[in-house]
Design brief:
By secondary structure, the chain is of the alpha+beta class. It has 7 helices and 4 strands; from the N terminus they run ββαβαβααααα. 43% of the residues lie in helices and 12% in strands.
Length: 197
């Protein structure tokens, strides 16, 4: 994989999709790609396949129609094609279109998403406006407490910082084993947690 110092290193890009209720990893993948641009759709497909295999159906509204599953992704995953494909797969994407500044004041036009809903707005502007809505801000803010802690727990608490095996197939197996043990720990903790009255 190409590195920032213009050299190459033997490394991989580990991906995970995490549920919002219990931080269970629903899908996991490893690639050789240095960025995440092409990873959103394969991860969404793997997520749908795993949910279908587990017999978990998408949420439904009062009329029994399937609702789209909200999906928050950081700016590394954004592309117009990825956003469209996620919608086709039954997800409601909230994808950052650029780096988010912490505690930055929001401009008046940015706070008004209707300005980006005009026919002249690009798909990227529409996605950025969607993220600035109250719903979009709330959903995207939850991403920090859903997926980021999972990688922190795997790296920091469990000390997994590098793969021990070599070759893409072996590394995929190793990453899936790490994710499986993460899920088992989460399930054990939730099942053994004292009941709250």
């Amino acid at each position: 994989m190409k590195q920032s110092n213009k050299g190459y290193d033997y490394s991989f890009n580990a991906q995970a999709v995490v549920d919002s209720a219990n931080q269970i990893i629903v899908a996991a993948e490893v690639t050789r790609a240095a960025n995440d641009k092409q990873q959103a759709v394969p991860l969404a497909e793997a997520t749908r396949e795993n949910l279908d295999q587990a017999g978990i159906t998408p949420p439904q509204d009062a009329d029994g129609h399937e609702q789209k599953i909200p999906a928050t992704l950081d700016s590394g995953y954004y592309s117009v094609a990825a956003a469209k494909d996620l919608e086709v797969l039954g997800f409601d994407p909230y994808m950052a279109t650029g780096r988010q500044r912490h505690h930055a004041p929001t401009a008046e036009s940015a706070a008004n998403p209707s300005s980006a809903n005009s026919s002249s707005a690009t798909p990227k502007e529409k996605m950025a406006a969607k993220l600035r809505t109250p719903t979009g801000r709330a959903l995207y803010a939850r991403r920090k407490v859903i997926v980021e802690p999972v990688f922190g727990q795997i790296k920091g608490v469990r000390g997994f910082r590098r793969f021990l095996l070599r070759g893409l197939a072996k590394v995929r197996g190793e990453w899936r084993l790490v994710c499986l043990t993460h899920n088992l720990l989460k399930i054990w903790r939730y099942r053994c947690a004292p009941a709250v009255n």
